[in-house]
Structures are given as C-alpha cells and as structure tokens.
Write a structure and sequence with these properties.
The protein is α/β, with parallel strands linked by helices. It has one domain: 3-Layer(aba) Sandwich (Rossmann fold), CATH 3.40.50.300. The protein has eight helices and nine strands. The strands form two sheets. A five-stranded parallel β-sheet has the order 2-7-1-8-9, with helices on both faces. Strands 4-3-6-5 form a four-stranded mixed β-sheet. Strand 5 and strand 6 form a beta hairpin. The longest helix is centred in the C-terminal third of the chain and has 16 residues. The chain binds guanosine-5'-monophosphate. The site of guanosine-5'-monophosphate has 14 residues, from strand 5, strand 6 and helix 4.
C-alpha cells in the first residue's frame, strides 16, 4: 500500500499529435508535480534539449540500461527505443512528489502490471479530428512529410488502446482539457473518487469517426 506521504503516478498516453505534450507541461506546473524524463534513442528535434525533454542516448547505451535493469518500463515506438528510469521516478514518489508520465500504451501496460505500491491514474488523450491530427503531425519539425503519414498509420493502431485507460479526454481546447484532467487528478490524489467514470459511448463514437 502507498503511504499518504507518497506521490502519485499520473500517466498520459495518446497517439502522436493529440497535443499530449502541452497537457503534460501544464500539469507539471501544478504544485508538487514533476515530469518523468525518459531516455530515448530517437534523435533530438531542433527545439529539444538533452536532459530536459529526454535523455538522448545511443542504442548501445540504451541496451546497457536494459541489461542493468535500470528501467521501470521500456518500449519500442516508431522504430526508436524509449524507457523510464526506475530510480529517479521512485525517489521522487518516495519524497512525496507526484510524477507525470508521457509514455505510450505499452509502457502503461508494463507499469500497471507490476502492482507497484503507488497510486496510479491513467489518461488517454484523443485529437478532436483526423484533419487536425494530420495538421499537427505535418507541422512538426520533421525532415519529411512521409513521417507524418507513417505516424498516421500508427495512429490507427494506437488509438484502439483507449479502452485500457481510467479516463479518456478529447483535446479540442487545451485549457479546457487541462482543467478537466487537473480536477480529476486532484480528486484522485485526495481519494475523493474510487471509480472514475466517463462517457464511454461518446468516446467510442469519436474514435469511430477518427478511424473511418
Ligand atoms: P516522441 O518521439 O514524439 O517524443 O514520442 C513518441 C511516443 O513515445 C509518444 O507516444 C510518447 O508518449 C512515447 N514515449 C516517450 N517516452 C516514453 C517512455 O519512456 N516509455 C514509453 N513506453 N513510451 C514513451
């Protein structure tokens, strides 16, 4: 069991381009919340800083971290490896900090299956429409529009995992979406909610529109 002093784990996942990174940044401004900084073998984008956005490592450095059992979870996403450092996360939780994870569905599944002693709440973020999703993916600093098309293909696979999350939100307005998540997180932190409910039918219809 987690102690009252321990922090909680807040996981946000989404298909690429749903605006999750902005939500994670806003959440991290809440009192006593920090973002878990992952390791990745992906090359940095022009606006990214090592140690701030990710710890950028080589494939062999990443393999060593796996072998040394340094990861709480790790996964291959879009041909790159991503992993969450066990020690930094557990140290933060033990010192009462709430830790926000921006990780994919594979990592979420791994963390949930470990039955760790901390309270976990998981959110899946959906884009408002297919058109906006493609625009967001194309506007990124990517060498090639082809990557946006590739990620669109992955979207169709990844979006199906919404069913495994505690809560699903549609990010059509950043501030509105943030405040929805923030309220739920606060209720969860102070144990005001046991069973988190959302309208599965609305989400299911929205997903249908996104994939068809
Ligand atoms: P990006 O390369 O666009 O920053 O991230 C691609 C995907 O990898 C996103 O869905 C992001 O949530 C996921 N991701 C980032 N860090 C981790 C991690 O440590 N573990 C896992 N499983 N996924 C991650």
């Amino acid at each position: 069991m987690s102690s009252q002093k321990d922090g909680i784990i807040v996981i946000l996942s989404s298909p690429s381009g749903a605006g999750k990174t902005s939500l994670v940044k806003l959440l991290s401004k809440k009192n006593n919340f920090i973002i878990s900084i992952s390791h990745t073998t992906r090359k940095p984008r022009s606006n990214e800083i090592d140690g701030n956005d990710y710890f950028f490592v080589t494939n062999s450095e990443f393999e060593k971290l796996i072998n040394d059992k340094k990861f709480l979870e790790h996964a291959k996403v879009f041909n790159n490896l991503y992993g969450t450092s066990k020690k930094s996360v557990l140290d933060s939780l033990n010192s009462g900090k709430n830790v926000i994870f921006d990780i994919d569905w594979q990592g979420t599944k791994q963390i949930k299956s470990q039955n760790i002693q901390y309270k976990i709440i998981t959110f899946f973020v959906l884009p408002p429409s297919k058109k906006i999703l493609f625009e967001r993916l194309s506007n990124r600093d990517m060498k090639d529009k082809l990557i946006a098309s590739e990620r669109m293909k992955d979207f169709y696979k990844d979006v199906k995992h919404w069913v495994d999350y505690d809560f699903v939100v549609i990010n059509d307005d950043l501030d509105k979406c943030y405040s929805e998540i923030s309220k739920i997180v606060d209720s969860f932190r102070f144990s005001k909610i046991q069973n988190i409910k959302y309208d599965k039918k609305i989400i299911s219809q929205h997903v249908e529109k996104l994939i068809n």
